[in-house]
Amino acid sequence: MAVTGNGGGNASGRGPLAGLRVVELAGIGPGPFAAMLLADLGADVVRVDRPGGGGLAVDPAYDLTNRGKRSVLVDLKSADGPARVLDLVERADVLVEGFRPGVAERLGVGPAECHARNPKLVYGRMTGWGQGGPLAQTAGHDIAYIAVTGALGMIGNPGEPPAVPANLVGDYAGGSLYLVIGVLAALQHAGTTGTGQVVDAAIVDGTAHLTAMIHGMMAAGGWQDRRGANLLDGGCPFYGTYETSDGGYMAVGALEQQFYDTFVELLGIADRAPARKDVARWGELREVVAARFRTRTREEWTAVFEGTDACVAPVLSLREAPHHPHLAARGTFTECGGIVQPAPAPRFSATPAAVTAGPAQPGADTGSVARDWDVPALVAKEAD
């Protein structure tokens, strides 16, 4: 899909979304991450920050979710604040906001006001509970959203509390990525019909959607509705993690028979491993595998399995990951402004994306945005 914007573009003009203009109303979590992804792919993202800041106490210089964006300061509660945002909206293709339902409307920058100025605008709304429903006005965070969808209850060991997967499953997988998918789909519709629309991206909806395959397996009798009892949740002894002699861990995913055969051969237990299909002996098999892994260090086991089809990999820390030979060869991580960080993904053959700038500093780009987007009132307001 070719996305055409209203002109301008990010500073480099690189990426498949070059020329797309996005207004982001500053927030925290999944909204900024979604806007970062659009910026990574070439969109000219202007973040509207509030005077005095807000949200989490993160030094803006290190907030990578604001990389590649530009920032202007607008007080939406001031008399002319909404008008400044609507001036930007008139020249934009997309708006992203993450307020509670009704807040944007009360501030004068809701869908009705924005579409009155720009009928083709895609208005992306990012919330945890969604725009409607009994909990829509209730505060929450990632952990609560994934809890009620059943996703959190799947993760962890049996007999122990569910394991918290940072905020990756809810905020970013179930939230940000679904918002971006919705925005891109709505842009296709707007390009075809000339009419924009509202995208209601709720973390509960996206996270529930992520569990589609599991629901199918459960309906077919192939998944038990409890932790640590299934093929993909740590219940299976050849799909899980094992501690090494130096306190490191190895991840094993030898599901298919041919991969399993290679795994037990290289691990050195082929002659004493219980039959893998005998679920009643899975506990015994796990003990054999665990005991063997404890005989060598993580580095030693990495060398044993490197380059094989055993489907075994070392469990690396965040600081170690950029140095993994495969990731280093692909450039999966990059450095910008002295900060090592994930490179844009996915990759494009004709329009490669790149990190073009560090995190936007609040209000630092008012002049360039006023010029490039032809909104002189931004500068006039700043000078007052």
- Terminal Cα span: 43 Å
Side by side, the strands of the main sheet go: 3-2-1-4-5-6
Q: Beta fraction of the residues?
A: 5-15%
Q: How many H/I helical runs?
A: 14
Mean pLDDT: 94
| Low-confidence runs of at least 5 consecutive residues | 1-9
Secondary-structure class: alpha/beta
Overall 3D geometry?
elongated
Helicity level: 25-40%
Estimated radius of gyration: 24 Å
Question: How many β strands by DSSP?
Answer: 11
| Secondary-structure element pattern, one letter each | EHEEHEHHEHHEHHEEHHHEHEEHH
Structure description:
With 384 residues, the protein is of the alpha/beta class. It is 35% helix and 14% strand. It is built from 14 helices and 11 strands. The protein has helices spanning 30-40, 81-90, 103-107, 111-117, 142-148, 168-193, 203-210, 212-219, 257-267, 282-293, 298-305, 325-330, 366-372, 377-383, and strands at residues 21-25, 44-49, 70-73, 94-97, 122-127, 197-202, 239-243, 249-253, 312-314, 333-336, 339-342. The strands form 3 sheets. A 6-stranded parallel sheet has the order 3-2-1-4-5-6, with helices on both faces. Strands 7-8-9 form a 3-stranded antiparallel sheet, with helices on one face. A two-stranded antiparallel sheet has the order 10-11. A hairpin with a 2-residue loop joins β10 (333-336) and β11 (339-342). It starts with 20 loop residues before the first strand and ends with a helix.
